[in-house]
Amino acid sequence: MSTRRIAGPFNRVEGDLEISLDIADGRIAAAYVNSPLYRGFEQILQGKLPADALVLVPRICGICSVAQSAAAALALADAAAIEPPHNGRLAANLTLAAENMADHLTHFYLFFMPDFARAEYAGRRWYGSTAGRFRAITGSAPNQVLPERARFMQMMGLLAGKWPHTLAVQPGGSTRPLQSSEIFRLHRILREFRTFLETVSFGATLEEFASIADRSQLEAWRTRAGGGDLRTFLAIAGDLDLWHLGRGTDRFMSYGCYREEDGQLFPAGLWHGGAAALEVEAIEEDISHAWYAAAGLPQHPAAGSTLPVAEKEGAYSWCKAPRLAGQVVETGALARQVVAGHPLARDMVESDGGSVAGRVVARLLELALVVPAMERWLTELVPGAPWCITARLADETSGVGLVEAARGSLGHWMTVRRGRIHNYQIIAPTTWNFSPRDTQGQPGALEQALAGLPASTNGPLPAVIDHVVRSFDPCMVCTVH
Amino acid sequence: MNILWLQSGGCGGCTLSWLGSEHGPLFRLLTDESIELLWHPSISEAGVDEARDLIEQCAAGSTAVDVLCIEGSLLRGPQGTGGFHRFGGGAQPMIEWVRQIAVRARHVVAVGSCSSFGGITAAGMNPTDACGLQYDGEAAGGLLGPDFRGRAGLPVINVAGCPPHPDWITETLAALAHGRLGAEHLDDYGRPRFFADQLVHHGCPRNEYYEFKASASRHSEQGCLMEQLGCKGTQAHADCNQRLWNGEGSCLRGGYACIRCTDPGFEEPGHPFETTPKVAGIPLGLPADMPKAWFIALAALSKSATPARVRENATADHLLRAPSVKRGRR
Question: What residues contact residue B94 under an 8 Å CB cut-off, 6+ apart?
């Protein structure tokens, strides 16, 4: 016999989150994840001019704002059958990468690590120094990192005018031509960011960390001198065994991102014990447990609908349940790096599957991989060459935009009729990770990852629940939009 | 002075903008200004039961709230129930929590255009019946009603913007902490005048193009964005080109139009955002306080006087002609 407990509000998850827990014998027998906020962007977009989506969709999310812009820009470019010029493509990469790297940093220092300062851990040998470093608001880390983050975000001032909510990201490229002196300043900002990461976060060069190929090398690296906040986390992860916490579906998906001249820096794909091609056409959204009216069967997003209802039998979230060929998948930095084939990411999931530690390490690994790519993209810019071409859409058309936000795969599906948006469907990263059950009764990725964790029916909930929830770097405002 | 910060039907972007504050560590700045965060959903350690208990105490009055900051639109739907947003861990809609705490707070601050006026969530068919705390678009009212006053006597303070500049938020809070914000410091829409009495146009680096009506016609061109590309900087109340964003940015510096995001109703301009509406070739939205006849006359005159340098550079994405260098004494 289990007891139901409603846990919320979860904070440091970028939006609203509530989880119902069925607890039996001191463990979570079943978890039901509820995204309790609905705003209706897909309804707002209906009837709008396609280009106006570029104003509306970034405002779905304050932390994945550029990712939303990028997905819309790609959908519009697809509908117009255009490709941005060389500089426009690089500017899009740089802008998206700047957001994604800032988000990885924000997640680690502001959202995830403060949970290790909780009183529950007061008996651990690492507690004193960790709490002093990472405690929310008063810790030395948040106060050191925020100014560094703000300095790094000066890249956005130059690339995109401001962040969040830019209009610089366009289907035909960037509205912001950069001249050589601005590119020079971007180099300097990035150089300062690299120095901060190498001295404060990694205690190593980015290249040294990115070359770690498996768990044993990672452990050997951890025990070497050098300091850095990542080593602190790895020591905690070993002590608390975060490598065996929060396992989900072990089915990892990535749309791929950062367009290079040939292909993408991180290619698209699926990983489930081995690599497989990603069939985007096999994506469907199931609304059996979400507060929407619909005609029964799950729909491909290009044909999806969003009709909220106040009450519905069996529903417990505003989040739809996206599935890939009927399967639950996990998305995020770990998925992206596993799919892209980074040896450390592959080794982490082959050893232990998806885990709290693996997800955190993958995010830092991406900082080590993407910052050097950003440096290269800056050198490839050609001042004086074109930055943007004009997108002209037919009155009857459609487009798809697939990108990777910091926290995973983001897709926009747009249909245009008589020059206006007829249908616009969005599946965000956390829609995948924090989905409710589907028609088959399959729990979503977080629901699976929480099952079996310790929990009491009335005392404080253990911090492991927070670690699992935040290891996905959820963005709840994107989840339901 | 303590602050309780709650997020309603928005995107969280106001907080993310605020975290980009460029005056050293934000949390130290708050301490220096005697501001304490009781709770903030993106920043605080306390979650779940601990956070819920605190917020219940604020609603019941057992914990005093000096400033209630609300980010995001207030969602009244469906059918007035507020059910589109139930605050985590319970059945009570967010609008009910806001109503209960607002009447107890000394000050209520709307952070961003959503909680000020309804904002982007109120666009289109406004499916959630979104509004601001004390405005529903341009109309006074909103969730709390036109006569609402915080216990200290001020109406809701609208730090508008989508998002607001980090300094607008911080300076407003600091002014409240030091008792320096009175009704006379708010404009007709309840916005702090220290930023709302400026125009986005002030300090625009495209000013020479504006003077000659040398206009960009496509994205990435250097000319003025007002005539073709929808820019409302000459009407929009904000200091975006004097107090820059993320180092040296602003919308216009980023190459795209000001969409007047600090104004009520910006989300439904009645024309494509990036296309200037015109009648007989004359932009409908004229610069603030400018008589139409004079605008037309001056525009015609300045267009005919446009130097070739300015005209050619306006439709290029980099400098084609540099200003000439004069020799000898002048």
Answer: B6, B8, B9, B74, B75, B82, B85, B86, B87
Q: Cα A297–A299–A300 angle (5° rounding)?
A: 155
Alpha-carbon gap, residue B8 to A478, rounded angstroms: 14
Give the closest of B13, B73, B255 to A62, CB-based. B13
Angle (CA) A166-B261-A92 rounded to 5° is 5
CB B206 within 8 A of CB B252: yes
In angstroms, the CA A239 to CA A249 distance is 24
Report pLDDT digits (tens) over A42-74.
Answer: 999 999 999 999 999 999 999 999 999 999 999
Q: Which fold has domain B199-319?
A: Cytochrome-c3 Hydrogenase; Chain A, domain 2 (4.10.480)
User: What is the spatial distance between Cα B100 and Cα B91, in angstroms, rounded to a whole number?
Assistant: 15
Pairing of strands B107-111, B67-71: parallel
Q: How many CB pairs under 8 A join A and B?
A: 277
Quickly name the fold that domain B2-196 has: Rossmann fold (3.40.50)
Q: Which of B11, B46, B259 sits opposite A61 (nearest CB)?
A: B11
Q: CA–CA separation, B113 vs B100, rounded Å?
A: 22
Distances (CA, A) of B223 to A178, A359, B92, B228: 15, 46, 52, 10
B133, B156 contact by CB (below 8 A)? yes
Interacting residues of A370 by C-beta distance below 8 A, sequence separation 6+: A97, A100, A101, A258, A265
Which residue in chain B has the smallest CA separation from A171? B219
| A165-187 tens-digit pLDDT | 999 999 999 999 999 999 999 99
Tell me the domain boundaries of chain A. Answer: 3-479
Residues of A in Cβ contact (< 8 Å) with B45: 114-115, 117-118, 135-137
pLDDT tens by residue, A323-374: 999 999 999 999 999 999 999 999 999 999 999 999 999 999 999 999 999 9
The predicted pLDDT at position A296 comes to: 66
- Please list the alpha-helical segments (H only) found in A20-179: 41-45, 53-56, 65-80, 86-106, 127-134, 140-152, 154-160
CB contact under 8 A, A161 and B43: no
Nearest to B47 among A11, A55, A138 (CB): A11
Tokens of residue A428, six digits: 């965000």
Global pTM?
0.98
Residue B47: predicted pLDDT: 86
Check: CB of residue A292 under 8 Å from CB of residue A389.
Answer: no
Classify residue B180 as exposed, middle or buried by CB count within 10 Å of its CB (0-12, 13-18, 19+). Answer: exposed
Mean pLDDT of B257-264: 98
- Report how far residue A240's alpha carbon sits from residue A468's, in angstroms, rounded to the nearest whole number: 13
The SS3 of residue B240 is coil
Mean pLDDT of chain A: 97
Name the fold adopted by A3-479: Cytochrome-c3 Hydrogenase; chain B (1.10.645)
Contact list, B250 vs chain A (CB under 8 Å): 161-162
Burial of A373 (0-12, 13-18, 19+ CB in 10 A): middle
- Contact list in B for residue A158 (CB cut-off 8 A) is 247-249
The interface predicted TM-score of the complex, written ipTM, equals 0.97
With CB atoms and an 8 Å threshold, state whether A177 touches B21.
no
Sequence-distant (≥ 6) Cβ neighbours of residue A87 within 8 angstroms: A173, A174, A177, A178, A381, A382, A385, A386, A387
**Alpha carbon distance A116, A118 (integer Å):** 5
Q: Where are the domains of chain B?
A: 2-196, 199-319
**Which two structure tokens, joined as six digits, stand for B185?**
């410091």
Query: For residue A412, what pLDDT band results from cuts at 50, 70 and 90?
Result: very high
**Given CB atoms, is A343 within the 8 Å cutoff of chain B?**
no
What count of Cα atoms within 13 Å lies in the side-chain half-sphere of residue B327? 0
Per-residue confidence band for A297, with pLDDT thresholds at 50, 70 and 90: confident
